Structure prediction request, 88 residues.
Amino acid sequence: MKDKSDDRTVDFIPQKPKRGRPSTGRAMTPAEKQAAYRARQAELVVTVTFNREDINTLKRLIANPDLSLGLDKAAIERLMEAVFQAAK
Prediction:
């Protein structure tokens, strides 16, 4: 058997290279992968809590937005859909 630190001795028996992609040493455990996934998902969604008595007021405000403020119509529609889904 050859010493791992020996870089001068010629190998007499040729070895086939290992199959597959070489290891980087930076592999994540399944728990680390799941934590990273949850962190990415948490960046996408914001949870807001409203009192049920305020839902009707919120619906009216979203249904009649002041477009002079330069609000994005697609964002208003997404908010309206989310409010109507939550009110069910």
Remarks:
- Residues 32 and 38 are 10 Å apart (CA to CA).
- The mean pLDDT is 85.
- Residues 30-44 form the longest helix (15 residues).
